[in-house]
Amino acid sequence: MSEPEAKILKANYTLKQKAGDGGFSPEAVRAAMNRMESAVDLFPTIASGDLEAIEQALKIIRTGDISKPVMDKVYSACIELKAHGTMFRFPLVTMVADSLCVFLDSIQNMSMIVREIIELHLQTLKIAIGQGPRAITDKDKVELLNGLQKACAKALDASAS
Amino acid sequence: MSYKLKSLRVLVIDDNAPIRLLVRSLLLDLGFGHVHAEADAQQGWECYIKDRPDIILVDWRMDKQDGIEFTRRVRQEKSSHNPTVPIIIMTGFTNKKRVFDARDSGVTEFLIKPFTVQTLSDRLTHIIEKPRDFVLANQYVGPDRRRRKDEVAPTEKKRKADKLAEKAAEKAAEKTPVTAGPQKSKKYIDLRGGTDNKTNK
Which residues of A touch B (CB under 8 A)? Predict the structure, then answer.
């Protein structure tokens, strides 16, 4: 007789036995929420690693290497910036990072125009982070995003033709 | 009454120092007694071997070895002392392919960024309250990827309980004289209170 292909271990309730009942205490949850609120100041430090990753990828792109692993590095850093922007209340960072993600998702042919679009987004991200979450007016935000979208649309047209 | 988490050990692995320290602090705020934070998968592995954590939170995107590779190592390496340890992966990626990749590596839960204290505590509660069977197969080692019936249909369960409570309340109302209004509503509240408490856990 052949051995069974899969073995199932029954669910282990050790954690439940240790933790007991009742869920997290409301005081503990409130304390954690307060900590999260006050963590907004951490965002520039958190984002610096992702900006650095994009800059490093750009250096490689400038040498003519626009391969998938390099673009994946840019994309991953953008995804992180997008998420952390929301977590730490920097909505403009989320919007700009999202704009770059959408562009990278849409582009069919990788050409050097991609480098310009990434540089443009990188500069905008630096401004958005440097100015703080509320320093840029809503009107300026709209203009910035419109500008980025127009540039992306042109680049997509150029790469398609 | 609330959880007693002082004896539980949690390991956090993230190469982004501020996020790593923030998550560690949040877990300590939530009541966990021992929270170790490590900066990369190798240090995380050494801590896992030495400290024997009850729960692991690992970031997906890390240099050298990422969260998925770390998860595979915990699940499959011979020197891994507790391959069934619950692993929560933290990620900003939400597309289907990536989620399936993570699931197939054997992660227990996803903590999708941006996350809040509420989503973090929800994931932890799920791990404590609803542990899953564990599959050891040639192709896959990890939690059973099929959710149990009682996990996927809690609303139906609650609906049934609510219906029963309503019927009982109606019967009680029929039997009770009109002058005994408060008694009727008390019974209704008692029955419903039972189900509500359950969902509030």
Answer: 5-16, 18-26, 28-29, 31-33, 35-36, 39, 42, 45-46, 49, 76, 79-80, 82-87
